[in-house]
């Protein structure tokens, strides 16, 4: 038997089994996607390690998937082929009742292949729960397969606007009847209702509680004048576009973080009980909102080695793939610092912004707006109008104190305000 293993690299986040893409008894080729794992950052497909028949499922839907754990087992092709069908039935019969309930396993009759097996158990269950026809959903998985993320996106679209059916590029049977949502008993306030948390929201909540429990958060706030980078962007935006790169303000923020980190390297670190681990590479995560589904933090790796154009190109790539649900595990791994650009949704200041563990700090950038400020003009003070934003740095007070925090912010603001044309 060949073990199907949970990937070892999970960036310290808790992973759970979202759903199996194959049923016990299915024949699979090497590298065929077998099962979806989900963390608070990304959904990952685990491929088949070899060609064979899926003989056992050991971790079912909602089970925690610890790195290195065995998800299931494959029987190699050609080995005791005539025993495959009895073994399949035996595997299902031997499965604990709780596991069988958690994930419906379909065992195909010999010679009969149900086309609906292209849908994983979690996808079928979600379609039934929300009364959706799979033929109206465009699949983003391998070969046009519908993933759980596709169903979630369809549900989100239905909750905001009347949905227009989208033709699927892959024929999928539409025999599934529409099932109305079950009535939910309201508790507490009359007229209220219960909205179950999805897996990503639960994992985000767990990480946020752990962060504020582990690290003493302290926040400092400065004000930054964006005049210099706005002038530079206006002068170079068209040239970047000719190279296929969008020059955003976030690219300048990442570059300024690199400059500040070189001035105060203690913030590019990880706290351990006996020592502080300082990192040579500056890997900056950028919070990317996914609407009601929460957010993910794709990482710009080795930002210290990138030009402004290189940073902008990386940002464009990872944020586009984040919003399309196309991130891979490496895209969210290895971050040493993070940026929360909360001002894009209108807030001036947000505090404290919770640190992405096990990092030591996180930058917050508020809404960019014109304000009246006092500046020296021809030797005298004058009130002028400038594009301003509040910038905050929330730190783990175990790692640094107020002096280093203010020094970091001072260098960050200076970099933005003295950006050469």
Summarize the structure.
The chain has 421 residues and is of the alpha+beta class.
The CATH homology group name of the largest domain: Chloramphenicol acetyltransferase-like domain
Largest sheet: 7 strands, mixed
Overall form: elongated
Report the average pLDDT across residues. 81
SSE order, one letter for each helix or strand: EEEEEEEHHHHHEHHEEEEEEHEEEEH
The termini sit apart by: 64 Å
Radius of gyration: 25 Å
Q: Determine the structural class based on helices, strands and strand pairing.
A: alpha+beta
Protein architecture, described:
This protein is α+β, with helices and mostly antiparallel strands. The chain has two domains: 2-113, OB fold (Dihydrolipoamide Acetyltransferase, E2P) (Beta Barrel), CATH 2.40.50.100; 200-417, 2-Layer Sandwich (Chloramphenicol Acetyltransferase), CATH 3.30.559. 28% of the residues lie in helices and 22% in strands. It contains nine helices and 18 strands. The chain has helices at 84-94, 97-102, 121-130, 148-160, 199-214, 227-242, 249-263, 308-323, 402-417; strands at residues 2-5, 16-20, 27-28, 33-38, 43-47, 52-57, 70-76, 217-225, 269-271, 276-278, 284-286, 288-289, 295-296, 299-300, 337-340, 361-365, 369-377, 380-396. Strands 8, 11, 14, 15, 16, 17 and 18 form a seven-stranded mixed sheet that branches. A four-stranded antiparallel sheet has the order 1-7-6-3, covered by helices on one side. A hairpin with a 4-residue loop joins β4 (33-38) and β5. α3 packs parallel to α4 and α7 packs across α8 (308-323). The chain starts with a strand and ends with a helix. Mean pLDDT is 81; it is low at 80-117 and 159-179.
